[in-house]
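Pilot study result, target chain (222 residues):
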Amino acid sequence: MFYQFPFRRRSIPARMCVLFRLALFCLVVGCTWDGHAAPVPMRLNISGSVYVLDEITEENGVYESKVSRLRLTNRDLLLFLQDWTSETFPVGAYLEAQPDGRVLVRTRTGYSRDVSMFISVGFNLDRTELVHGKFNMVTGQLQAQSIYTLDLFITAPTDFLNLHCYGVAFDRLTGPPLRNGSQRVNQNLRSTMSGKGTVFGVPIFFEGRATMYGSEVQTPEL
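Predicted structure:
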């Protein structure tokens, strides 16, 4: 929805009224609903490109620099994490982001290892968001999408890799009407991210995407 402010044709009181209505709208849209389903643990997928200065050459007074583009995916991160934790993860290991920002390496067979000291996620750290959707206070049914900022932090135990990425997240949370006091909550998040950091002290830049999805049975209190 787009808002137009024809200030040239309105008096000062009219302008103030328009601004007040817009502020009230943002306040209502940005609020949260008490009692609705909570965020769930989500499987984390990262895919993007890292740009790093490759080399600088000189020939007959002519200097040439080259920048390399490297892929960064979950497979790379899991290999890094095995080195950083000195632990071999089971087959089928994946990254899972917790609602509090911690990241775990998990498997469907029950294996779990907290790797938050190396990789973590910041959900809406500045506490500013827009919420679009519906929540039924009687049945508990929820269908909403939140828009906020998402941060991703990757820090190696040495200077091998340090990276901070940032982007706008579109976070969709849905839940059917409660049945016997519980409901299965589904959450899907996507974000186009960019950021910068270092590899062995050399500057790097990142651009890519982060996607997350998860499902959990909850018993919210209405």
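One observation from the pilot: The chain has one domain: 33-218. A full batch analysis is planned for the follow-on phase.
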